[in-house]
Fold this sequence. Notes:
The chain is an alpha/beta fold and 323 residues long. It has 2 domains: 2-19 and 141-277 and 311-321, Rossmann fold (3-Layer(aba) Sandwich); 37-139 and 279-305, Response regulator (Rossmann fold, 3-Layer(aba) Sandwich). The chain has helices at 2-25, 48-64, 77-89, 106-114, 141-155, 172-185, 203-216, 230-242, 260-267, 282-293, 314-321; strands at residues 37-42, 67-72, 94-97, 119-122, 135-138, 159-166, 190-198, 224-227, 252-257, 273-276, 301-303, 308-309. Helix 6 links the parallel strand 6 (159-166) and strand 7. Helix 1 (2-25) packs across helix 5, helix 7 crosses helix 8 and helix 9 packs antiparallel against helix 11 (314-321). The longest helix has 24 residues, at 2-25. The N and C termini lie far apart (45 Å). Residues 46-47, 49-50, 123-124, 173, 201, 229, 231, 256-257, 277 line the site of beta-D-fucofuranose (GYE).
Amino acid sequence: xxHRAVKGLLFSVILxxxxxxxxxxxxxxxxxxxxxxxxxxxVGSESDWRTAFTEIxxxxxxxxxxxxxxxxxxxxxxAQIAAIRSFIEQQIDAIILAPVIETGWAxxxxxxxxxxxxxxxxxxxxxxxxxxxxxxxxSDFVFEGRLAAAWLAxxxxxxxxxxxxxxxxxxxAARDRQIGFNEVIALFPEMQIIVSQTGDFRRPMxxxxxxxxxxxxxxxxxxAVWSHNDDMAIGAIEAIxxxxxxxxxxxxxxxxxxxxxxxxxxxxxxTNATVELNPYMDGPDFDAIVAHLxxxxxxxxxxxxxGIYFPDTAAEEYAIRVR
Length: 323
Ligand code: GYE
């Protein structure tokens, strides 16, 4: 009975994801915004996905003729707040904020609102009241965690001891992916997370944490690694290989982002599944700002979708995504 439940759950979740993923991959081709000055406070450059997201957004701004003032905060909330304050002083048309962590934004968002400058939250979330920003453009991190767990449940028939590599502490991405993943594995008494540690979404830290776990845990007990992003998964793959084990076989691996390097790892047989985090949020983002400046109503959340990908399509996905 339980196996039928697993397959039913997985089929419906993956079918929805693949359909929404197809929708998500289409990239808005608007050209609204010409002549606007928009400030973009970006988290940093901690992962390949973040770097790609930045490049895509800057290219779209240039294509549209938007004057984008870009600030890379290198994962510092203080630097993000200082950048936003500078944008406000320059009295620009709008601000895009990709918040490194959830808390601590109410004051600066209030300052922007008082100055009459709309703010769009992009990617991770904030705990500040939604009246303080125009909208949020993002994927559904809880869904991403559910999808990863649904695949792992099906791949292991609901029995697996799991190592979790968490993202940046305090970020909504790490918290919500963990919530979604745990919701699904709670359906399977034989699936449990035996150790969970942050690698801060960074490849070197993912490797260092996995090296440590392979010393403190019995490697033969580890069935899978669930990594909140591909960069930490790739670090873990290196650690697993250096420990003389076969990643993707001795230890299954599932992660999130769908970056080119994870598809290369799939082609090498080193990892098993990645949930896509669509980096094309620039189109919906700029379109929302233009619509707002034209007096149109904007929903408080504009979702972008992603699918789940496996080794059987890794070569073509790599070719599509490599930059
Ligand atoms: O998964 C990771 C980046 O905020 C959801 O941040 C994003 C995450 C993404 O460091 O690669």
